[in-house]
Amino acid sequence: MNVYELDRIEHLRDWLALSHQVYQAVENDLGNCNWQPIEHGEVVKFKPNVRPLVSPKSLFFSEQENMFVFDGEKFRETLPEHGPRVIFGVSACDLTAISYQDKHFRKDPYYQARRQQTLLVGIDCTKPCDGGFCRSVDAGPHVKDEIADLILTPMPSIGGENTGWWLICSSDAGRAAVSGMDLRRADSSWSSWREMNRRHTEAEFKSDVHIINGIQRINARAVPDELWERLAHQCISCSGCSQLCPTCSCYATRDVAEDTNMVRQRVWDSCLMVGFQKEASGANPAAEAGRRMYRYWYHKFSEDYVAQMGRYGCVGCGRCESTCPGSVGVHSIMEKISNA
Amino acid sequence: MLDLTPQSIRLVERYEDGTDIDHFTFEPVDKSKGLPEFADPAKVEPGQFFMLSIPGYGEAAFTYAGMPDDQGRFIALIRRIGSLTEALFQMKAGDTLGARGPFGKGWPDLNGNKVLVIAGGCGLAPVAAKIDALIAAGSDPVVYFSARNEAMLVMREERSRWHKQCKVYEAVDDIDSAKGSYMHGRKLPDNLKQIEAEQGKFDHIITCGPEGMMEAVCRIVTEAGHPADHLWLSLERRMHCGVGLCGHCYVANHLVCEDGPTYRWDQLGELVVKERAIKPPAEQVDMAVNAGSCCRG
Description:
The complex is a heterodimer of chains A (340) and B (297).
Chain A: E1 2-6, H1 9-17, E2 21-27, E3 33-38, E4 64-70, E5 75-77, E6 85-91, H2 92-104, H3 109-115, E7 118-123, E8 150-154, E9 165-169, H4 172-178, E10 184-185, H5 190-203, H6 209-219, H7 225-232, H8 240-244, E11 251-258, E12 261-268, H9 289-301, H10 303-309, H11 319-323, H12 330-339
Parallel strand pairs in A: 2-6, 6-7, 7-8
Antiparallel strand pairs in A: 1-9, 1-10, 2-3, 4-5, 4-12, 8-9, 11-12
Helix pairs in contact in A: 6-12, 7-9
Chain B: E1 7-16, E2 21-28, E3 49-54, E4 58-63, E5 74-79, H1 83-88, E6 96-103, E7 115-120, H2 125-136, E8 142-147, H3 156-165, E9 167-172, H4 188-199, E10 204-208, H5 211-223, E11 231-234, E12 250-251, E13 254-255, H6 256-259, E14 262-264, H7 265-275, H8 287-290
Parallel strand pairs in B: 7-8, 7-10, 8-9, 10-11
Antiparallel strand pairs in B: 1-2, 1-6, 2-5, 3-4, 3-6, 11-14, 12-13
């Protein structure tokens, strides 16, 4: 594996911006962090250890997109078109979610049109973020080689000051993207420093007993229907959890008139909505709110899905907890079901 | 890579075939490069479904009520029940729509077996092509078809043909106002008992209808000793994609569009345990009471 030393992260970003559209999480005045395009030469400081409000999910699985056009006679597919892109500075939880989505959307032409043009630059987290529990669901805090093209990991700091970064080329595409850049080869000490850093970071995570217990109770089907029904009273079907969840992938379709044409769009949907499974006849297999709530968490933590997808559907980012107005995000739910 | 874009089809013919139910025939507009898969008799299996697009109104799943012929013409039995089907019922022969498919798992190959097909109301549509296939294979299926009333005895042309080709039992719930002659019994267990008394034991049973009806059928026949792994049914769920992406048709960790819609009863039973996907009816099901509340799509 090629590993290089890097003084400033922005140098790498600027280099990649020569040939790619680069997206980076940028903090606004309110302290919220969102994915924004950064042009070559633009002076925007890179801030490590931030959790953007949203994951980069929508850069691949668009919140709303056109699928095809009907002109009255024929249907014509409308695939997204753009050049090469870089998503820069993605943390391990979000990268894990992207690899999960890669599997789900492996044959989806719209997702793949974006994904195949995208290089992923991951970054190791050096401290737990607020509400994050990636360690408990094998999704962080460090980036696994197979889920990013390039990985940034910090060199040991001196007096709290960052002294530079190691740049790990973990894929052929990553290696190709930095070829030609003036980089020093790292000596072999990087891997032991990185490993030590990981252990330090993992030791800082708060207790995850409720998460582990909750997972066990869901899989043992030990949570009574009545409790799901009671918890569901707190859900106002805002779908905030599904929107922010980096692995939620459900969508609905709708037809929109455009001049003389008809456009089929797909838009994000949520299994917590009462009409999600409702059929034209009025029959609704998921009419009960408790069943919808069970469904959501079953999809995130069931071993049945581990067998299909190779891991839990939850990557431990904690965004559902921070957005849920009804206190039924992941920590609240797992607390309640593990103590039930 | 999947193709989620439909191809143009033409409405060839439609006629009334039950209360608010029409019998539709479609064909691809462009056959210049051969038949598209959804209209190719070599690619479609009985029990599979296609996605029908009505531009401006969306897309929904419908079962093949008849296999495509060598001209690529295929049949659907569709009930007017929502905005999409309402728009479809305004269309006339020659109008253009869209289709893609075929999707899902069809019925298993049961040729050479003694098969009983139990259908309720519109549940006849997903089994109709299988009945044809079993007849063509010389397997002499026995059909038991039940509906709420005479007006809901759908697929009359197919049934009049089957009456000449195989044994067909018919029952209606509203027997007092019925003009034709039907089975005397109104209760499902009684009728099944009578059929078995006349026809002997069956190797396999296929059933389709409202979920409550199918659950009752499966319970009754398994209690009577029919093995659960020789019992098949077809589920209906809302579908937006047909290819396992949109997530709407979940039953536990299955997606009905890909893993179904046909299921073996014992395998579905495992899913039912996981999610209690199909609930037993609160009271004894009178076969025909619910029949007819169901239609694919």
